[in-house]
Amino acid sequence: MVTYGQEILARVRALCEADPEREACGFVVRRAGALEVLAVPNVADRYHAHDPAQFPRTSRDSYLMDPRAQLRVHEELEASGGEIVAVWHSHVEVGAYFSAKDRADAVVDGLQLLPGAEYLVLGVRGGRVDEVRRYRFDGGDFVEAKLE
User: Fold this and answer.
1) Would you call 101 helix, strand, or coil by DSSP?
2) pLDDT per residue over 62-111, tens digit each?
3) How far apart are CA 99 and CA 41, in angstroms?
């Protein structure tokens, strides 16, 4: 199990609090044994504006990681031998729970989209992160796990 440490969690908190009216998102990656936090732009508003029927949620209540930015992360990690250890995102003015949409986005045909990756969900209320929860894929579903 990954130990994130206060520096990693503080960095994720800071990114979530930098734009507290929108869900922030990204990855925690491991390269050469060290953990690093990567922010990925949330493009939910762009997709919603283009096709609100297909993408009814905005960045206030959803996240959609920029596909090009995600591809770059995957390519860089493949080249450097790194790996994604966690996907993180915030929830605005609600709790740090793993929603039905989070589950649907993380699993395809019963298999985890990013095998082995955990999910960190941060609740942001009043512009501040007030809770952080960790979720792991176990037995075909995501379950909450202790965060250090």
Assistant:
1) helix
2) 999 999 999 999 999 999 999 999 999 999 999 999 999 999 999 999 89
3) 20
pTM here?
A: 0.95
Parallel, antiparallel, or unpaired: how do β-strands 118-125 and 107-108 relate?
Answer: unpaired
Q: How many domains does the chain have?
A: 1
What would the two tokens of residue 44 be?
A: 């939910």
Contact, 130 vs 92, CB < 8 A? no
- End-to-end, the C-alpha distance of the chain in Å comes to 10
Query: Cα(64)–Cα(58) distance, rounded to whole angstroms?
Result: 9
% of the chain at pLDDT higher than 70 = 100
CATH number at residue 83: 3.40.140.10
Taking residue 103's Cβ as centre, other Cβ atoms within 10 Å add up to 14
- Domain with 51, as residue range(s), is 5-145
